[in-house]
Fold this protein.
Amino acid sequence: MESLIQADNSQTSIGRTRSGQFELPESFISLSEEETFALGMRLSSMLGKGDVVALNGPLGAGKTCFTKGIAEGLGIEEELTSPSYAIVSEYECLAGGERLLFYHIDAYRLEGNDDFSAIGGEDIVYGNGISVIEWGDRIPAFIRSGAYRIDLEIIEGDKRSVKIVKQGR
Protein backbone atom coordinates (compact mmCIF):
# COMPACT_ATOMS: atom_id res chain seq x y z
CA MET A 1 0.00 0.00 0.00
CA GLU A 2 1.15 3.48 -0.79
CA SER A 3 0.70 6.26 1.74
CA LEU A 4 -1.55 9.09 0.69
CA ILE A 5 1.24 11.42 1.75
CA GLN A 6 4.67 10.59 3.01
CA ALA A 7 4.74 11.31 6.72
CA ASP A 8 6.51 10.03 9.79
CA ASN A 9 3.22 8.76 11.31
CA SER A 10 3.18 11.73 13.67
CA GLN A 11 0.21 14.03 14.03
CA THR A 12 0.14 16.01 10.77
CA SER A 13 -2.14 18.95 10.19
CA ILE A 14 -4.54 19.08 7.29
CA GLY A 15 -3.26 21.67 4.86
CA ARG A 16 -2.57 22.57 1.27
CA THR A 17 0.41 21.75 -0.90
CA ARG A 18 2.28 24.49 -2.75
CA SER A 19 0.07 23.85 -5.79
CA GLY A 20 -3.03 24.57 -3.67
CA GLN A 21 -4.24 20.97 -3.52
CA PHE A 22 -5.45 19.62 -0.20
CA GLU A 23 -3.30 17.03 1.47
CA LEU A 24 -4.33 14.63 4.16
CA PRO A 25 -2.28 13.14 6.95
CA GLU A 26 -1.49 9.45 6.91
CA SER A 27 -2.47 9.28 10.56
CA PHE A 28 -4.73 11.67 12.44
CA ILE A 29 -6.26 11.91 15.89
CA SER A 30 -9.75 13.36 15.71
CA LEU A 31 -10.90 14.91 18.97
CA SER A 32 -14.54 15.36 17.95
CA GLU A 33 -17.26 14.46 15.46
CA GLU A 34 -16.67 17.87 13.87
CA GLU A 35 -13.03 17.02 13.16
CA THR A 36 -13.98 13.63 11.71
CA PHE A 37 -16.59 15.35 9.52
CA ALA A 38 -14.02 17.98 8.42
CA LEU A 39 -11.53 15.26 7.46
CA GLY A 40 -14.21 13.71 5.23
CA MET A 41 -14.81 17.12 3.64
CA ARG A 42 -11.08 17.44 2.91
CA LEU A 43 -11.00 14.05 1.22
CA SER A 44 -13.98 15.01 -0.96
CA SER A 45 -11.83 17.59 -2.76
CA MET A 46 -9.58 14.75 -3.94
CA LEU A 47 -12.37 12.54 -5.32
CA GLY A 48 -13.59 12.16 -8.88
CA LYS A 49 -15.23 9.82 -11.32
CA GLY A 50 -14.71 6.15 -10.46
CA ASP A 51 -13.16 6.72 -7.03
CA VAL A 52 -13.82 4.33 -4.16
CA VAL A 53 -13.46 5.07 -0.44
CA ALA A 54 -13.51 2.08 1.93
CA LEU A 55 -14.23 2.87 5.58
CA ASN A 56 -13.43 0.34 8.28
CA GLY A 57 -13.84 0.35 12.04
CA PRO A 58 -16.14 -0.87 14.80
CA LEU A 59 -19.71 0.29 15.36
CA GLY A 60 -19.71 3.92 16.46
CA ALA A 61 -16.21 4.68 15.15
CA GLY A 62 -17.39 7.52 12.90
CA LYS A 63 -17.77 5.90 9.47
CA THR A 64 -21.11 7.60 8.77
CA CYS A 65 -19.86 10.93 10.18
CA PHE A 66 -16.83 10.77 7.85
CA THR A 67 -19.14 9.90 4.93
CA LYS A 68 -21.39 12.87 5.74
CA GLY A 69 -18.32 15.11 5.49
CA ILE A 70 -17.48 13.68 2.07
CA ALA A 71 -21.09 14.17 0.94
CA GLU A 72 -21.22 17.79 2.08
CA GLY A 73 -17.91 18.49 0.39
CA LEU A 74 -19.39 17.13 -2.84
CA GLY A 75 -22.41 19.43 -2.57
CA ILE A 76 -24.98 16.86 -1.47
CA GLU A 77 -27.63 18.75 0.45
CA GLU A 78 -29.84 15.79 1.37
CA GLU A 79 -29.52 14.32 4.88
CA LEU A 80 -27.30 11.25 4.71
CA THR A 81 -28.20 8.31 6.92
CA SER A 82 -26.48 4.97 7.14
CA PRO A 83 -28.13 2.70 4.54
CA SER A 84 -27.92 -0.39 6.77
CA TYR A 85 -31.14 -1.97 5.52
CA ALA A 86 -31.16 -0.56 1.98
CA ILE A 87 -27.43 -1.42 1.56
CA VAL A 88 -26.98 1.32 -1.09
CA SER A 89 -28.23 4.91 -1.16
CA GLU A 90 -27.70 6.99 -4.28
CA TYR A 91 -27.30 10.77 -4.48
CA GLU A 92 -26.27 13.25 -7.14
CA CYS A 93 -23.06 15.20 -6.49
CA LEU A 94 -20.64 17.59 -8.13
CA ALA A 95 -16.95 16.64 -8.34
CA GLY A 96 -14.41 18.53 -10.41
CA GLY A 97 -17.18 20.49 -12.11
CA GLU A 98 -18.88 17.29 -13.24
CA ARG A 99 -22.24 15.90 -12.12
CA LEU A 100 -21.78 12.35 -10.84
CA LEU A 101 -23.63 9.75 -8.83
CA PHE A 102 -22.53 9.27 -5.23
CA TYR A 103 -23.13 5.80 -3.80
CA HIS A 104 -23.23 5.40 -0.02
CA ILE A 105 -22.86 1.68 0.61
CA ASP A 106 -23.20 -0.06 3.97
CA ALA A 107 -21.77 -3.57 3.71
CA TYR A 108 -22.44 -4.46 7.36
CA ARG A 109 -25.29 -6.87 6.55
CA LEU A 110 -23.55 -8.46 3.57
CA GLU A 111 -22.01 -11.91 3.94
CA GLY A 112 -19.27 -11.11 1.45
CA ASN A 113 -18.40 -10.37 -2.16
CA ASP A 114 -21.08 -12.67 -3.61
CA ASP A 115 -23.86 -10.86 -1.73
CA PHE A 116 -22.72 -7.51 -3.12
CA SER A 117 -22.41 -8.96 -6.63
CA ALA A 118 -25.98 -10.27 -6.38
CA ILE A 119 -27.32 -6.73 -5.96
CA GLY A 120 -25.27 -5.31 -8.84
CA GLY A 121 -22.17 -4.29 -6.92
CA GLU A 122 -19.95 -4.34 -10.00
CA ASP A 123 -22.11 -1.79 -11.80
CA ILE A 124 -22.00 0.51 -8.80
CA VAL A 125 -18.32 0.34 -7.82
CA TYR A 126 -16.87 -0.05 -11.32
CA GLY A 127 -19.11 2.66 -12.80
CA ASN A 128 -18.45 6.35 -13.22
CA GLY A 129 -19.70 7.55 -9.85
CA ILE A 130 -18.04 7.94 -6.47
CA SER A 131 -18.54 5.01 -4.06
CA VAL A 132 -18.13 5.27 -0.30
CA ILE A 133 -18.30 1.86 1.36
CA GLU A 134 -18.83 1.55 5.10
CA TRP A 135 -17.54 -1.81 6.35
CA GLY A 136 -15.42 -2.08 3.19
CA ASP A 137 -13.46 -4.99 4.69
CA ARG A 138 -16.60 -7.16 4.23
CA ILE A 139 -16.37 -6.90 0.43
CA PRO A 140 -12.62 -6.83 -0.26
CA ALA A 141 -12.91 -7.80 -3.94
CA PHE A 142 -14.56 -4.43 -4.58
CA ILE A 143 -11.78 -2.37 -3.01
CA ARG A 144 -9.64 -1.98 -6.08
CA SER A 145 -6.22 -0.49 -6.60
CA GLY A 146 -6.31 3.27 -6.21
CA ALA A 147 -9.09 3.18 -3.58
CA TYR A 148 -8.77 5.20 -0.40
CA ARG A 149 -8.81 3.05 2.73
CA ILE A 150 -9.84 4.83 5.92
CA ASP A 151 -9.43 2.94 9.21
CA LEU A 152 -11.18 4.49 12.22
CA GLU A 153 -10.63 3.31 15.76
CA ILE A 154 -12.31 4.50 18.95
CA ILE A 155 -9.79 5.78 21.49
CA GLU A 156 -12.29 7.11 24.05
CA GLY A 157 -15.40 9.29 23.99
CA ASP A 158 -15.37 11.21 20.69
CA LYS A 159 -11.59 10.76 20.24
CA ARG A 160 -10.73 8.66 17.17
CA SER A 161 -7.61 7.40 15.46
CA VAL A 162 -7.94 7.82 11.69
CA LYS A 163 -5.49 6.17 9.29
CA ILE A 164 -5.64 7.03 5.60
CA VAL A 165 -3.92 5.10 2.82
CA LYS A 166 -4.38 4.95 -0.89
CA GLN A 167 -4.29 1.35 -2.10
CA GLY A 168 -1.28 0.56 -4.30
CA ARG A 169 -1.72 0.87 -8.01
The first strand starts at residue 2 and ends at 3. DSSP finds four helices and ten strands in the chain.
